[in-house]
Amino acid sequence: MNKTMTMTMVAVDLGASSGRVILGTYDGQTLVTEEIHRFANEPVRLGFDLVWNVLGLFAEIKRGIKLACRKHGQPVSLSIDTWGVDYGYLDKGGRLLYPPHHYRDERMSKHRSRLEGLLPPQEQFRLTGNQPDSINTVYQLFADGQENTALASATDKILMMPDLFLYLLSGRAVAERTILSTSGLIDPVTGEPASLVFESLGLNPMLMAERVQAGTVIGTLLPELQEELGCGPMRIIAGASHDTASAVAAIPYADKSGSAFLSSGTWSLIGVETPEPVRTEEGYRLGFTNEGCFGGGNRLLKNTTGLWLLQESQRCWAETGQKHSFAELMELAASAEPSRAILDPNDPVFRAPGDMPVRIERYCRERGHAAPASKGELVRLVLDSLACSYAQTIKELERVVGRGIHTIHMVGGGIQNRLLCQLTADATGMEVVAGPVEASAIGNLLVQLMAMGELESSRAADIVAASEPIVVYRPGVNSSGKLRA
Q1: On the chain, which terminus has fewer CB atoms closer than 10 Å, C or N?
Q2: What is the pLDDT of residue 478?
Q3: Is the whole-model pTM more than 0.90?
Q4: Of the candidates 4, 3, 72, which has an alpha carbon nearest to the alpha carbon of residue 37?
Q5: What does the pLDDT look like over 118-140, one tens digit per residue?
Q6: Using CA atoms in the order 362, 367, 370, 375, what is the torsion angle rounded to 10 degrees?
């Protein structure tokens, strides 16, 4: 293993509103990231359907690769991560049948009750470890089959979204474990199709592509794309394709057994890593789900509301000409008194887009609480409420796994909100270790290095700690935190 030669890799991270092409430069000791290209990633309305803009996104990915090659020369590899559950169909000739549906498409609601009559929710959890939800792949596939009976005979393979983009780049169709683990279709221990799920719902397991572990080199960039983009045969890697799996792969744990992770953004994903899936009745009742990790372990986690309430409030204020930067809102919140009342950020009333400040004020009044009197009070109320929600979820985690947690590792864009990090430490009574911000992209790049044999997994945490600022927040410390020694 040559640890002195500098090498560059490309990570494509497709987020909820934007996609990014990130270049990673590794010199054997540190990993430096640079955003090469950013582009919109929003669903498209096609008739009554809400779908992915696959062709537009693929064009942007190619543009990013071309820019990376022009600026820094030939990258050695590329991998892609994005959210779970969505997928596309390939026909017998290997062509995309139609634009893949976005999980916010509403077709599943018409068929949910029939599916759950055939396969009850608790049975789904027992068989797959996934918390049943109408956005899950299994619900979407069932709805597709109910609405298009000719689909099964026209389909050769079903590919999850990262696998679909990797197929377009490499020509090889695979099903990577971490992204497939979000589908509600597989046995969480073997990683193979859960036969009773497919039998109960009349689905064909043969439509699933070859299963591979996270960190598999599946080929090289297609020759025609090499010519189009002016680059060589970079390796295409099925990494930890689920963005949360990539983010968790970037956590610089000091003691994994006593730590929880909190991936903070529009949504917050809170959980722990476990050797095996946890499929207990209590885990099901409390809303936890199981997903795959890089390296073959399990993530037991709960998806809760994150900064969505603030993001939507910020958007609503901007529409009325009251534009505030994120930093300005945090200053207002820091000057406000701690909230006397706490709201439930996971209440369904806050789920859909709309006038969030009005909803928050109404929520408070309906429960006999004083509504926020200023923007600063509203933002502080949301942050205090998020911290309390996190604390409750951590307590539930401890009950489900039967062990104590003493440290929370926060990653993702939400850790730039230093007040939220401190409030989380205060609400939980635990040390919060914040960093890295670009966790999904960094995890994506680390997995590429390990897949190519350029980095041992035992060194990954050291590389992150040497490359990224890691800030520690302690309960009751009224400060912005300090760098961990």
Answers
A1: C
A2: 56
A3: yes
A4: 72
A5: 999 999 999 999 999 999 999 99
A6: -40
In the predicted model, is pLDDT for residue 479 greater than 50?
no
Alpha-carbon span 137 to 183, nearest angstrom: 5
Tell me the HSE value of 230 on the side-chain side, using a 13 A CA sphere.
10
Please give the structure tokens belonging to residue 158. Answer: 């079903």
Asked whether 130 and 136 are in contact (CB, 8 A), the reply is yes
Q: What is d(CA 403, CA 34) in angstroms, rounded to the nearest whole number? A: 39
3-state secondary structure (DSSP) of residue 422: helix
Confidence of residue 477 (pLDDT cuts 50, 70, 90): confident
Amino acid at 414: G
List beta partners, residue 378: none
Give residue 151's Cα distance to chain centre.
29
Residue ranges of alpha helices (H) inside 135-207 are 137-147, 151-154, 161-170, 177-180, 195-201
- Residue among 151, 397, 448 at smallest CA distance from 286: 397
Cα 46 versus chain centre, distance:
25
Average confidence score pLDDT of the chain: 94
**DSSP single-letter state for residue 436:** -
Provide the 10 A C-beta neighbour count for residue 191. Answer: 16
Q: Please compute Rg for the chain using Cα positions.
A: 22
For 450, list phi and psi in degrees, rounded to 5.
Answer: -70, -35
Picking from 431, 323, 341, 439, the residue whose alpha carbon sits closest to that of residue 384 is: 341
What are the CA-CA distances from residue 435 to residues 267, 420, 468, 480 (Å)? 17, 14, 7, 14
The number of CA neighbours under 13 Å toward the Cβ of 299 is 29
Alpha-carbon span 310 to 453, nearest angstrom? 42
Rounded distance between C-alpha atoms, residue 84 and residue 199, angstroms: 23
The dihedral over CA atoms of 348, 340, 477, 422, expressed in degrees to the nearest 10, equals 20
CA distance 19 to 13: 6
* pLDDT exceeds 80 at position 431: yes
For range 366-393, the mean pLDDT? 96
Q: Are 169 and 59 in contact (CB under 8 A)?
A: no
Q: What is the DSSP letter of 293?
A: -
Q: Count of CB atoms within 10 A of residue 287's CB?
A: 15
Written as six digits, the tokens of 33 are 């990231």
Averaged over 228-246, what is the pLDDT?
A: 96
Closest to 340 measured CA to CA, from 369, 313, 366: 369
Report d(CA 224, CA 221) in Å as an integer: 8
List, by residue number, the catalytic residues: 243
Over residues 332-346, the mean pLDDT reads 94
